[in-house]
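Our consortium's second objective concerns turning raw sequence data into structural hypotheses that experimental partners can test. To show how far this objective has progressed, the report includes one record in full. It was chosen at random from the queue rather than selected for favorable results. The single chain below, 160 residues long, was entered without modification.
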Amino acid sequence: MSSPAVLSHTSFRCAALLVHLGRRMRVRVEEALAPLGLRPRHLVALTVLRDHPGSTQQSLAGALQVDRTNLVGLLNELESTGLVERRRSSEDRRRHTVHVTPLGSERLDEAESALAAAEDEILVSLDPAQRESLYLLLHQASDDHLIDCRAAAARESDDC
């Protein structure tokens, strides 16, 4: 087992490298999404909605880690361009569910193609197996947090 000092040094190195890589990736992703009229936050919301169709606004706010007021603005942007639609929940008329439209699905497919090219540029030094490992590790770290947010949203908490 590593000593706490080594763990903390390794954690700092990982954090610093993730921040640096994240900045590089964000700039390239923004460039790739701009011609599609999308921003990274739009892409993340569309992806979550595709993977969890009919999410409530509350659960979506938890998954995206945004204040509900900010979520309304994001959804207004996506709805005004015809990429999502809000509907009254059939189970609870006080709530709205959010759905990706056919145009939203098409735009998301286009965005994912553009992102693949951006990833290829940024991760050029990794072979396919290393990229898959990186993806799995990042997905695991992300899923752990998303699960916590979903549980909090289910409890109607604002913790996420």
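The partners drew two points from this record. Residues 86 and 98 are 5 Å apart (CA to CA). Residues 1-5, 155-160 have pLDDT under 50 and may be disordered. Both points have been shared with the crystallography group to help prioritize constructs.
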